[in-house]
Amino acid sequence: MVKDAFHDKDFRDRVQLGAVNSINWARVLAQITYYFYSWFRVTDGLRSHADNNLSVNYVVPTGNFGNVLAGYYAKLMGLPIDKLVLATNANDVLHRFVATGEYRHQHTRATIAPSMDVSVSSNFERYLFYLAGEDTALVRTWMETFETTGSLTVPEQYLQKVRTEFLSWSSSKSEIIDTMRNVYEKHHYLICPHTAAAAAAARRHRLDPAHTVVLATAHPAKFEDTVLLACPHHVLPPRPDILMEVFDRPVRKTLLPPALDDIELFIKTRVIEQEAASTHEALARGGRKTNSATSSGWSSAMWWASVTIGAAAAAGAAFFVLRHHEQIRRLLRR
Ligand SMILES: Cc1ncc(COP(=O)(O)O)c(C=O)c1O
């Protein structure tokens, strides 16, 4: 539905629609830096040995295929990445794609790793563009098939290519919880459920820990209930200040029917209300501005008046001295 809203040009322009998730390419762009940064950290000390394997695997908790696409771009830019691992939860559309070559729409299931609860990955077609060898006509055919049938299957040669670049895993709830517990018991490091899905995928694929980065995507304090399920005897770490602020804010929510028209109408109404409020505020500020303009005009007039009076007085004094300089000299001599 978000994508449909973006396709509605009038609506998009009217409300200046933007996304803060990875539909917005700027987010993906920023995430590319993580891969470079961590690659340099992992290969520190190895780079001077020419015979060392400098390829790094990245295991990425994924829903919208955004963060992992950033890794793919880093690889296209030349970063030595071996495998990108798609770590999913029960919403395993991407995992099934790597397993079977079929990308099929399914209903979203609510899980304990909610940021990965995505049934259609917004960035997937961005990857398909590269998979199709930048053949836009082919991507269009694939996507049109997907739009009309809810499924697309890539031919075998493309699937082989996918598998040279990606591995995947889908973690169940119990696997996520067990992984959180195991990582905590072994390393005294608390991870969030999304990160645990990735750690589980890394373990399943037996990736070499020396050359593997598991991306941690959220602070565990955001998922206290799940942390308590995984580590019931663990005292929760204090919430970071920035998170406290968010938790302290009032929750505002409006329930809407799952219909694009209703959602667009709701957003438009909000935007119009806000525009009216800011126009009102600007007018009020404009009024004060007039006052302050008047007062600044007044003070500038005062300044000019004092300069003029001062100059006139100085000119008058000079004239008087010139005219009566003989008498003044005589007076001073006495
Ligand atoms: C904590 C967390 N983990 C994983 C994801 C999934 O990432 P992506 O949608 O980029 O695949 C998100 C997305 O916002 C997230 O917030």
If you compute it from the alpha carbons, what radius of gyration comes out, rounded to the nearest whole angstrom? 33 Å
Count of β-strands:
6
Q: Main beta sheet, described?
A: 4 strands, parallel
Mean pLDDT: 88
Termini gap:
102 Å
How would you describe the overall organization of this protein?
The structure is a single chain. With 334 residues, this protein is of the alpha/beta class. The chain has a domain at 55-249: Rossmann fold (3-Layer(aba) Sandwich). The protein contains 14 helices and 6 strands. The protein has helices at residues 2-7, 9-15, 25-42, 67-76, 93-100, 124-131, 136-149, 156-165, 173-187, 193-204, 224-230, 241-248, 260-323, 325-333, and strands at 56-61, 81-88, 102-104, 151-153, 166-170, 212-214. Strands 5-2-1-6 form a 4-stranded parallel beta sheet, with helices on both faces. A two-stranded antiparallel ribbon has the order 3-4. Strand 1 (56-61), helix 4 (67-76) and strand 2 form a beta-alpha-beta unit. The model is unreliable at 289-298 (pLDDT under 50). The structure holds pyridoxal-5'-phosphate (PLP). Pyridoxal-5'-phosphate binds at residues 21-22, 61-67, 115-116, 194, 217-218.
